[in-house]
Amino acid sequence: MATSSFKKKFHVPFFHNTSKTAPAKDSTLQSVLASTQKKNSPSLRRRTIVHHTDCRRNTIWSDNVDEELVANLAPKELNRQEVLFEIIKTEHEYVRDLRLIEEYFINPIKQAEEKHRKHIVPENLNKVFNSISYFLFIHEVISNCLNERQENQFPLVRSISDILLSYVWVFRAYAPYLIHYEDALRELDESIRKKDKLGRLVRKQQKSPSCRNMPLTTYLLKPFQRLLKYPLLITNLLKGTDKDGFDYDKTVSLKLKLDEVLADVEEQKRKYDNMERLRELETRIHGLGHFRLATNNRQLLKESPACQSSFTLKKQPSLRKSLTVMSSPTLNQKRHSVRNLYTLECNDIVLLAERTGATKDGHPVYKLVSRPPSPIDDEPVMVHTRPEDSGVYYED
């Protein structure tokens, strides 16, 4: 997988005083704020800030501010405030869950490794743990910035798009997490099943009341869930933002940039999965010689029976048993039954192979019938269209 996007040294802009960068009050909100200003006491301010209260009680913004303020807001602005509140609140909850993973699982596991002077965490799970530790560091910064903005602009938060836009690059770092997540879960499940040192430690830590009766696998899913939730939240924020408002352009920029970054992350994951499929297929094909199937620009499109789309065979399935294909005309010519022939189709080559068995996991094992393509390096390989050059010969 390409890692160039992660080699860049990013600068983390800490918002020590976000009130200085906060935009001026909207004229449309000024009158509403004025009518409720006398009710905006310090005690009410403290009670309203989500991260200082019980999150289970503070579910929506309108439950935490004066009823008169809610009644005087236009429906669109009310919806916008609810979305802003949800973004800030759920970011805080996300950081809380990441911190729980580090404090109750990652740190105790590291301590156990230091004590026994032995690595007990499998490779993919270790990479996921490293990603989560980084997520905790950077999302804690984002959450603190959002909370500070919420305090400074209480009760009506006027803008957070500038903060999120400053940190949208963070989501590129989710690519390694997504790439190794599934394998990490398999490794964790295997450790728990075998009851090895890692499995026993995880089972012990999961019994802590702070884990809220949820296993580690549930918490490891949190970054993926958060990644899916961001586009929805930003879309809803954009829908609730007036096109004439001061924050509309920044919100549009935020959505476009977020979509771009997430598309790049998805493409990295797709390329990695494709390369893994090619490598795995390469191990199941005998007769490739020095030819490398897994190259950067190659995509596996299909692995299927060679004659599954033949109209004649569909009408007369019995022909599969008697119809044969002869391999290239050498001294060791051999016939191959059509029913065992498969095409391994990539974007630049098509291989014809005979199924000779299966792996322990049930995946087909092949023997190459057509000649291995050349050149053997990463250069493009031309697919011959003339029957005499294809490496496969059909006998009349």
From TrEMBL:
<dbReference type="InterPro" id="IPR001331">
    <property type="entry name" value="GDS_CDC24_CS"/>
</dbReference>
<dbReference type="GO" id="GO:0005085">
    <property type="term" value="F:guanyl-nucleotide exchange factor activity"/>
</dbReference>
<dbReference type="InterPro" id="IPR035899">
    <property type="entry name" value="DBL_dom_sf"/>
</dbReference>
<dbReference type="Pfam" id="PF00621">
    <property type="entry name" value="RhoGEF"/>
</dbReference>
<dbReference type="InterPro" id="IPR051480">
    <property type="entry name" value="Endocytic_GEF_Adapter"/>
</dbReference>
<feature type="region of interest" description="Disordered">
    <location>
        <begin position="370"/>
        <end position="396"/>
    </location>
</feature>
<keyword id="KW-0963">Cytoplasm</keyword>
<dbReference type="InterPro" id="IPR000219">
    <property type="entry name" value="DH_dom"/>
</dbReference>
<protein>
    <submittedName>
        <fullName>Dbl homology domain-containing protein</fullName>
    </submittedName>
</protein>
<dbReference type="GO" id="GO:0035025">
    <property type="term" value="P:positive regulation of Rho protein signal transduction"/>
</dbReference>
<feature type="domain" description="DH">
    <location>
        <begin position="79"/>
        <end position="288"/>
    </location>
</feature>
<dbReference type="GO" id="GO:0005737">
    <property type="term" value="C:cytoplasm"/>
</dbReference>
<dbReference type="GO" id="GO:0035556">
    <property type="term" value="P:intracellular signal transduction"/>
</dbReference>
